[in-house]
Design brief:
Elements: E1 5-9, E2 24-26, E3 45-46, H1 54-61, E4 69-72, H2 87-98, E5 102-105, H3 111-125, E6 132-135, E7 140-143, E8 146-150, H4 155-167, E9 177-182, E10 185-189, H5 195-206, E11 213-217, H6 223-228, E12 231-234, H7 240-243, E13 248-249, H8 257-265
Parallel strand pairs: 1-2, 3-13, 4-5, 4-11, 11-12, 12-13
Antiparallel strand pairs: 1-10, 6-7, 7-8, 9-10
Length: 270
C-alpha cells in the first residue's frame, strides 16, 4: 500500500485514522511543521504592492533571463480568497500562451482538483495538449498527458503518521518531509519531496533552463520552487518568510497579483 501525500486539517478527524489510507488521507494535525531557511535577501523588490520608480524597476529586471515557462501556484495565487479566477488573470494567462511562453500549474492539488478549481481554464491547463503540470506538491508530474515522475509515501510511514496523530506526538524524523499549503493544513510527503523538485523534473522533461523560469506562489510549499526560479515572485498575501526568498513581490490574490506579474515579466506591460 502506498500513498502520495497525507493531509492534516486543523480540525480533528480521528476516525479517518482507522480506515484504509487513500491517496489523500485526511487526519488530525499534530506534527510540527518545518520553518524554512531563507537563501535570498529579505527585502524583495515590491514592483506592484508599493510605489517604486519606473527607472528603479527597469534596472532591477533588465538583467533577468527571458521567460520561457511560467510555473504558477493555484490556491492563494491564481484563485482569489473567494476561490474564483478573475477575468484579468485568465486574460493574462491567455496572452502569455499566445506569446509562445509555456504555462503550467505547480500545486498541491490533484490534476482533477485543478480542473474543478479552475473550470474551463483548468481543463485546458491539464489537457494532454498542454505542456504539463506539477501536482500533489510535486509528487506527480505530467508532461502533456504522460506521467514523467511520481513518488509515493511508504506504507510504513503512512501508518506511523496515523499512530503519531492519534498519540499527539510530533516526530517523524528523516523518513518524511512536512510542508504547508495553507495555515490550517499540514502535509506529509516522502523524504525530499517538494513542489520545487516536481517543477525541476518537468523542466528537465521540457528541456527548459531554470534561469528561464518564472515561479509565483504564496505559501511555504512554494519555497523550493521560488528559490530555484530565475524570476521568483511572491504574492502580496504571502507570509514574510515566503516573500523573503523571492526577488519580487506583487499584489495579493484579491488584487490580480498573479495577472500583474504575468503582464510585467512575460508581456512587458509596465
Amino acid at each position: 500500500m502506498a500513498t502520495n501525500v497525507l493531509l492534516f486539517p486543523l480540525a480533528s478527524a480521528a476516525a479517518a485514522a482507522t480506515r484504509r489510507i487513500p491517496r489523500h488521507a485526511i487526519l488530525p494535525t499534530t506534527a510540527a511543521f518545518l520553518r524554512p531557511f531563507s537563501l535570498r535577501p529579505s527585502n524583495p523588490i515590491e514592483l506592484f504592492a508599493f510605489s517604486l520608480s519606473t527607472s528603479s524597476s527597469t534596472t532591477a529586471t533588465s538583467s533577468l533571463s527571458p521567460i520561457h515557462l511560467v510555473a504558477s501556484d493555484v490556491d492563494g495565487t491564481l484563485l482569489t480568497s473567494r476561490h474564483t479566477v478573475s477575468s484579468r488573470t485568465v486574460a493574462a494567462i491567455r496572452s502569455v500562451q499566445q506569446k509562445g511562453i509555456r504555462f503550467i500549474v505547480a500545486t498541491g492539488k490533484s490534476r482533477g482538483g485543478v480542473r474543478i478549481a479552475l473550470g474551463k481554464l483548468g481543463e485546458e491547463l491539464t489537457s494532454s495538449s498542454a505542456p504539463g503540470g506539477v501536482y500533489l506538491q510535486g509528487l506527480i508530474v505530467y508532461k502533456g498527458g504522460e506521467v514523467v515522475y511520481e513518488r509515493t509515501l511508504e506504507a510504513a510511514v503512512a501508518l506511523d503518521v496515523m499512530a503519531i496523530a492519534r498519540k499527539k506526538a510530533s516526530y517523524l524524523g528523516p523518513r518524511a518531509t512536512l510542508t504547508q499549503a495553507q495555515g490550517d493544513m499540514l502535509e506529509v510527503l516522502p523524504p525530499g519531496g517538494s513542489k520545487g523538485l516536481g517543477v525541476q523534473k518537468l523542466l528537465e522533461a521540457l528541456k527548459v533552463d531554470k534561469a528561464n523560469l518564472l515561479a509565483i506562489g504564496d505559501q511555504e510549499n512554494d519555497l523550493e520552487m521560488l528559490k530555484m526560479a530565475g524570476t521568483a515572485v511572491a504574492m502580496g498575501n504571502a507570509p514574510q518568510h515566503v516573500k523573503a526568498v523571492a526577488g519580487f513581490q506583487t499584489r495579493s490574490n484579491d488584487e490580480d497579483g498573479a495577472a500583474r506579474a504575468f503582464e510585467r515579466f512575460c508581456l512587458d506591460i509596465r
